[in-house]
């Protein structure tokens, strides 16, 4: 290869890395933005009162993701030594892996609340932990930090095409199945729990029981798997697109926990018109929201009245 060809290849590689670098940091912005606009809700709902399972999961999801943002900002610092870069890569891998832990536990607990079935709940928990297991497995790989002029610290590790295909399918496949099972469990709970009249809209019912959140997570994980496999077998653009999956997952889980906590604080009840149009199985009145001390607001139901209040405050879902 001539010097001119080598220079062209180097410039192309540098340009690709620059594009990935920009997209990666753009993918972190939803975490920061959501944190800033919901800080007042977080303070009012979680910073006061006793610590419950819901608040612990919320803080873990929110602040592990914020720590991930901070650590990746640090890796962009110029003049990092190779030793510091190696430490940052290891720490970043740990933080990235921990991002999957709290949402997985939340999915398992939410499944138990909806199904009251230990086997189904454990299955959903195990499937949701697949990304965490895969990312922690990378510690056994030969991962090292590399200092890239103009960009800071990056990571390098050797992996075969077949290994990459297997771990991607295992990681995202487990999440996809878990999200699908949660959507089914939510709709079964909705079907047996309430019969609604013509005035109730499909959108409010979906938000009411959280199924919209899990449907979005299901779609995100499906797109992540599709884009990643496409980038492995073809152009690399799918890799950068999949960067948004984890941040958006964290944002959705935090939003869902905020809504559930708000529902538990208000002890959600329908108004008189909603009561006339709704009938609950096994109850002649409106079913009160009762929560276990450990689970906190995880077992709550997002009511129609809460949705109306949220719409006035322009909360984004």
TrEMBL record:
Keyword Protease set for record: no
Pfam family name, one: DUF6533
Domain DUF6533 residue range list: 26-67
Membrane spanning residue stretches: 22-39, 51-71, 119-137, 164-185, 206-227
Keywords: Membrane, Transmembrane, Transmembrane helix
The name this protein goes by in its record: DUF6533 domain-containing protein
Organism per entry: Lentinus tigrinus ALCF2SS1-6
